[in-house]
Amino acid sequence: MSQELRGRSSETTGVGSANTSGTGRRNGSTFAAAEVLARLGSVRAEGRESGGVAPGSQGSMTPMPHESPEPTALVERMRPYSRTIFGEMSALATRLGAVNLGQGFPDDDGPEVVKQAAIEAIRDGRGNQYPPAHGLPELRRAIASHQKRRYGLELDWQTDVVVATGASGAIAASVLALTEPGDEVVMFDPYFDLYPADIALAGATRVTVPLSGPDLRPDPAALAAAITPRTRLLLLNSPHNPTGIVFTRAELEAVARVACEHDLLVIADEAYEHLWFDDNEHVPIATLPGMWERTVTIGSGGKSFSFTGWKVGWATGPRRLIDAVKVVRQHLSYVSSGPFQWAIAEGLTLPDQYFTEFRTSLAARRDLLATGLANLGMRVLATQGTYFISTDVTGSPSPDVTGSPSPDVTGSPSPDVTGSPSPHVTGSPSPHVTGPSFNSGSEFCEWIPQHAGVVAIPMSALSDHPQAEPFVRWAFCKEPGTLREAIARLEVALSRRRQARLT
User: Fold this and answer.
1) Does 112-349 match 4-11+28-107+356-502 at the fold level?
2) Which pairing describes strands 19-21 and 205-210: parallel, antiparallel, or unpaired?
3) CA distances from 56 to 51, 376, 440, 449, 488 (A)
4) Are the C-beta atoms of 446 and 41 separated by less than 8 Å?
5) CB atoms closer than 10 angstroms to residue 334
6) Residue 38, CB-side half-sphere exposure with 13 Å CA sphere
7) Radius of gyration in angstroms for the set of CA atoms belonging to the chain, rounded to a whole number
8) Distance separating alpha carbons of residues 371 and 375, to the nearest angstrom
9) What CATH number should be reported for the domain whose range is 112-349?
10) 462 phi and psi angles, rounded to 5 deg
């Protein structure tokens, strides 16, 4: 696979540490995501290393049909986005029978009452034909009520809310509606992989500002330095995919000051608004002074209720911005998921207890995976929200992960998982365990499907900057048994790798 197909290309701007991209080319890059995808061909051809996958794996290796890396009919600006790291790695997991901790979809469905609401809507004929273009009134009212109840935001459901085909559809419509060709869109890096493609569709230019420090936190000063007279829009994501951080109120206030000072519009991707843990809490940036009138906020029914395949999302904000989003959205997909809109409307009426219990369950799974990865010698970054854990697989571990594992997933480890979890997820393995010591996250993510039967995502595939290269993203929104199986497979493979390097 060529460098262009990575879809993460940029040229240095000379403004702070930000990178920009509009051409699909990168100069002087050491970023490795393209190499991962390029080497998947050898993974397909070679199959698993003999004995390298833990018992219980299923499936067989089959060659992948030839795919043209640059479809000849595709317009130039979209050629870098013809394939995605998530599609490639999930397909690889299927072919290898690997445990897929790469893509963020839960193993289990959401609330039964929400599922039943969808079934009843289908049976009753509600939404089986075209629903209203901008969303069912019932769902738009529920979204407005949710925003008021949880955040104190007063929305007119008729003018300030539009339903879309998932949060991704709402983001695409918002970017297309609010940017002109040549405008700059600034965002923190690493980023969700759809953002660059949406910006390219709009003919705009992305400017990326790296999250900084060992914990990958936002730097408002670097953000301010990246603003130019061409900057139109800030694309913000918290809780943050892929890192799992949640922006603090102080960080958001600093970002808001930059947006107000430079009169930027903001698209706030808050798809994971209910998925925050421990002492963290999601603060919508639209609630901060000066931000409501310039912010489109994105929500997700799939992430909030674990029905990611239903693709029901929305955008909320002031009428002048939402009117613009409505115009574009109706030409992307005239309507969206009729019966499922009824079901998500039902979900938004659930008491706060549902969201509390949901977070508790996910936090337990986070702690299970974090403990297992730390015991394998990885430095685990503190996961404050979302579905994802980030680990450094290149060096020695350090104790920088906090949070108390839930009693139902810790204590004595499963017989197939070695190492005793500490009462706190510290990131420090047992003294005899050394770190994986790979050269990069991409090298690690290429190696583990073959040798361990596990799939994860290299952070460099979601970044324009070298600070992401050591990191790997893992999805913990899986059944505890799935997570234990993945840890067991990794333990076997990494142990064999250490032994081989000693001989």
Assistant:
1) no
2) antiparallel
3) 12, 20, 28, 14, 11
4) no
5) 11
6) 13
7) 22
8) 6
9) 3.40.640.10
10) -120, 30
Residue 473 near residue 242, CB atoms below 8 Å = yes
Give the whole-angstrom CA distance, residue 434 versus residue 277: 29
The token pair that represents 212 in the structure block: 């900084």
Question: What is the number of other CB atoms lying within 10 angstroms of the CB of residue 128?
Answer: 12
Q: Are 463 and 418 in contact (CB under 8 A)?
A: no
For domain 4-11+28-107+356-502, say whether CATH 3.90.1150.10 is its number.
yes
Q: What type of residue sits at position 484?
A: R
Q: pTM of the full predicted structure?
A: 0.83
| Residues composing the chain | 503
Sign of CA dihedral 358, 362, 365, 367: negative
Residue 411 Cα distances to 371, 404, 406, 422, 425, angstroms: 11, 11, 9, 8, 12
Residue with tokens 């594992």: 405
Return per-residue pLDDT of the chain as tens, 503 residues: 333 223 333 333 333 345 555 433 333 333 344 555 565 555 544 443 333 333 333 333 333 344 445 557 889 889 888 888 888 888 888 899 999 999 898 998 999 999 999 999 999 999 999 999 999 999 999 999 999 999 999 999 999 999 999 999 999 999 999 999 999 999 999 999 999 999 999 999 999 999 999 899 999 999 999 999 999 999 999 999 999 999 999 999 999 999 999 999 999 999 999 999 999 999 999 999 999 999 999 999 999 999 999 999 999 999 999 999 999 999 998 888 899 999 999 999 999 999 999 999 999 999 999 999 999 999 999 999 999 999 999 975 544 433 333 333 333 333 333 333 333 343 444 444 567 889 999 999 999 999 999 999 999 999 999 999 999 999 999 999 999 999 999 999 999 999 888 87
Q: What is the DSSP string of 294-346?
A: GEEEEEEHHHHHT-GGG-EEEEE--HHHHHHHHHHHHHH-SS--HHHHHHHHH
CA distances from 179 to 164, 174, 200, 230, 232 (A): 19, 8, 11, 11, 7
With a CB cutoff of 8 Å and minimum separation 6, the contacts of 213 are none
Distant-in-sequence, close-in-space partners of 407: CB < 8 Å, separation ≥ 6? none
Sign of CA dihedral 403, 409, 411, 415: negative
Please state the domain extents for the chain. 4-11+28-107+356-502, 112-349
